[in-house]
Amino acid sequence: MKSALFNAHIAGIGTYIPEKILTNFDLEKIVDTSDQWILERTGIRERHIASAEQAASDLGVIAAQRALDDAGLTINDMDLIITTTVTPDMLFPSTACIIQEKLGNHTIPAFDLNAACAAFIYGLVTGTQFIATGTYRNILLICTEALSSVTNWKDRSTCVLLADGAGAVVLQRGDSSGGVLGYTLGADGRGGLNLYQPAGGSRMPATLETVQNDLHFLRMNGQEIYKFAVRNMVETAKETMNKAGLNASDVDLFIPHQANARIIEGISKRLEFPQEKVVITIDKYGNNSSATIPLAMNDALKAGRIKKDSVLLLVGFGAGLTWGGLALKWTKTTP
Ligand code: ACO
User: Which of 25, 30, 164, 260 to mutate to test the pocket of ligand 1 (most atoms within 8 A of CB)?
Assistant: First the structure.
């Protein structure tokens, strides 16, 4: 971080959530659950679900164009496209290449990055390296998830959590004051089977049997993930602040991955961040994996909670298991 030639700054942000809203009351009609249970245990009231025609790239391309517009740039100004998703349009080609084509450019390097719900942080850190070394000037990072496509609507323990949505940012070379201040990444493959999609890869290719046995849907050991998240996120946040040379009092806004409001409240309490410093959007968006942090960040911007020079602390965790934290000084002028 100290040896960087350039700092990476967020020059533009854009999001997209599908129109269709699925409320807890709608879910009461599908599985044996209740609005009260979902709200008390997760903090979710409603979530947005993509239409049958919308794949991850369709959500991502809208968010990407909005981020470009916000930055006052076009796709032809970009040097690299990184897309994060656990629900790619297809296993290959990458969703990044599909989005590149939809945005009307046919030369920019493009690739997908899979770090599940921690992927916004992984993507920012990856983009930061290309900027820090002077390799690239503008990078389009798109986090897009169509989790409804891997949701088992008979499994009440997961279907109430998952949602669709996309967020994108333009990461840009800037001077050394502000932008990305510090970060940390980690992974522990031992926890892989606590959150996974069993079939559809080379381990278990699609067969009639895999479809009949619901093996193409997401599976989760919720309690293990919960314990991991609370334990790990506090350490990740502390390590990130340490690497960025920050104290908790320097942080203006804490924007964690939105998996469960209880997890967010638990870690915020341990980190001694008061409520007004914490962004929670899970009530209206549910958990859309790598898109939750850019969605929450955009909401905070629109609400005037992020101002020029605000210091943001982002932390995420997800399947893998993966985790990451990143501290950022917001340098873009806000409305
Ligand atoms: N409605 C009503 N009852 C339910 C529901 C539901 N939707 N889901 C589970 N229950 C029941 C269980 O069957 C169980 O009943 P029992 O006691 O009769 O056996 C009871 O509620 C308690 O179940 P728990 O699993 O202990 O509930 P918990 O309080 O742990 O909450 C939850 C479950 C919300 C899944 C929680 O564990 C959690 O949030 N875990 C972390 C999830 C997460 O972060 N996932 C990562 C993201 S997923 C992704 O990113 C793609």
Answer: 260
- The reply to whether ligand 1 has any atom less than 6 angstroms from the CB of 33 is yes
Give catalytic status of residue 9 as yes or no: no
CA distance from start to end of the chain: 30
pLDDT score of 281 more than 80: yes
CATH level 2 (architecture), domain 181-329: 3-Layer(aba) Sandwich (3.40)
Amino acid letter, 327: A
Report, as an integer, the average pLDDT of 108-124.
98
Q: Is the CB of 287 under 6 A from ligand 1?
A: yes
Residue 1 reports pLDDT greater than 60 = no
Checking if the pLDDT of 157 tops 60, the result is: yes
Residue 335 has pLDDT above 90, yes or no: no
For ligand 1, pick from 32, 86, 158, 161 the residue to mutate: most ligand atoms within 8 Å of CB.
161
Q: Is 159 in the pocket of ligand 1 (CB under 6 A)?
A: no
Cα dihedral 121/331/71/170 (nearest 10): -20
7-177: CATH topology? Peroxisomal Thiolase; Chain A, domain 1 (3.40.47)
Ligand 1, atom 9, residue with closest C-alpha:
157
Task: Please report, for the chain, the start and end positions of each structural domain, with discontinuous segments joined by +.
Answer: 7-177, 181-329
Cβ within 8 Å of residue 7, ≥6 positions away = 131, 132, 173, 174, 175, 176, 177, 178, 179, 180
